[in-house]
Amino acid sequence: MELVSAMPHLPERARGSEQLITVSAPEGYPIRQVEAQLVLSAGGTLGVYPVDSTFAVLAENGRRVIRMAAQLPGRHAAPIVRFTDRHGNRYYTYRQLTERIPHDDWVLAARDLDRQYRTGPNPDEPDPSP
């Protein structure tokens, strides 16, 4: 799973939206569901905003490509993508980090991945996995 782009340059069909989010994965990758939100960081607080629509699901060069449009007038936000594999495992991708996170809380997932993005892994912390 790869977040290909989140850019303000949009195709004609998405005109009027602030962001185009493109998610790409190999066709054989076992994805059941893909969702996205936009994360805005303001004053140390993270907020999430819904993505307006999925307007294209395509097959390109052996990959499944999903394009979504999002509006957040006057602000720049980073996309967070949640996808579920065929076994029901839930993953989040934010700022090029992908983690398996079992809960469905967008804000908590964004907070955890944002902290990891800003500080990097901490080798002194015990591994929370069993």
Topology:
Layout: E1 2-7, E2 19-26, E3 31-42, E4 45-50, E5 53-60, E6 63-70, E7 78-85, E8 90-94, E9 97-100, H1 106-119
Antiparallel strand pairs: 1-2, 2-6, 3-4, 3-7, 5-6, 7-8, 8-9
Supply database-style keywords.
1 helix, four-stranded antiparallel sheet
Descriptive report:
The chain is mainly beta and 130 residues long. The chain has one helix at residues 106-119, and strands spanning 2-7, 19-26, 31-42, 45-50, 53-60, 63-70, 78-85, 90-94, 97-100. The strands form two sheets. A five-stranded antiparallel beta sheet has the order 4-3-7-8-9, covered by helices on one side. It is globular.
* H/I helix tally: 1
In whole angstroms, how far apart are the ends?
25 Å
Q: Helicity, in percent?
A: 10-25%
Describe the largest sheet: 5 strands, antiparallel
Q: What is the count of β-strands? A: 9
Q: Provide the succession of SSEs.
A: EEEEEEEEEH
- Portion in strands: over 45%
Q: Can you list the strand order of the major beta sheet?
A: 4-3-7-8-9
Q: Nearest-angstrom radius of gyration?
A: 15 Å
Shape: globular
Mean pLDDT: 77
Structural class: mainly beta
Q: List unreliable stretches of 5+ residues.
A: 13-17
Write a compact overview of the structure shown.
It contains one helix and nine strands. The strands form two sheets. It has a five-stranded antiparallel beta sheet with strand order 4-3-7-8-9, covered by helices on one side. Strands 1-2-6-5 form a four-stranded antiparallel beta sheet, with no helix packed on it.
